[in-house]
Amino acid sequence: MPAMPPRFRPFLGRRAALAGSAALLAPLLAPGARAQQPAWPSQPLRLVVTFAPGGSTDLIARLAAKGLQERLGQPVIVENRPGAGGTLATNFVAQSAPDGHTMLLSTSTVMAISPALYRNVGYHPMRDFAHVALLTTQPLVFVANKGFPGRTLQDVVRLSQEARDGLDMASSASGSLNHMLIVRFAELTGAKLTHVAFRGAGPAMTAVVGGTVPMMSDSLPSAAAPIRQGSVRAIAISAEARSPTFPDVPTFREQGVDLVTIGWFGIAVPAATPGPVQQRLNRELRAVMAEPEVRARLAESDSQAGDLSVEAFTQMVGEHCAMWPPVVRASGASAD
What we know:
CATH topology of the largest domain: D-Maltodextrin-Binding Protein, domain 2
Oligomer: single chain
CATH superfamily of the largest domain: Bordetella uptake gene, domain 1
CATH architecture of the largest domain: 3-Layer(aba) Sandwich
Largest sheet: 10 strands, mixed
Distance between the termini: 79 Å
């Protein structure tokens, strides 16, 4: 190989010298560079809840907040911001600083249903949020007045088709996940069902117990006490498998209806929140939900603790966001 012209040698020597100097200085510069990155968390955290205090949603939020506070060494304040079907709180978090100090207790309703229910919901469930941790899942259940003649889903379909005006079925609200389960069930089976919306699960259950409405769709935690008391009869749950709490209640699939629906509660943060913060939140929240006392509290309300990575939970939310809008449109429900 021919020798390189002399005029290039000083240049190469200087570049090599600079590279060597940079390598020697790197360990000295690294601590300073790291020091410029703000520590997280550097202040109290806020967990925004879309419902008023009380109920299973608030319980889940406070369990998560307590455990997260103990693990992070910063206060975690639960802030209830009810209104507009949870969209007010959801928009508030979407527009918050993406620094990991403001979190949303996200639900299947505000992420997968509300964007199709409202003409202008104000946020995009996937573009505006990072979905960092699944906290719990809850199956839904069809229950009937104890005097209702049907005991299976096939009975429900048959009785609804035989009745001139079909069957009424209640839920906690128009556009709720419970409402969408009724719509989807009717689509799959041909059942003639008329949805009756109430202001909350409590009034709807009162109507079913009293026989004003023969059936309702409810979350299993909400319906658990009336089922245990014998005030209503559980006909089917929407989970993959039977509930350990109610092992005698068959699933939809066991009764020939290919339908699995769960309500879920998770933690979402603004989309631009740094990746390391998202991963740290995921690790800490999974550890919190794995604690025996937390699992025991959840089991009391027939909820299952979640344990998914950021990537797996994001995929799950995306699947739900694709699944429910067509059902919402088929229902004709609108919140505008």
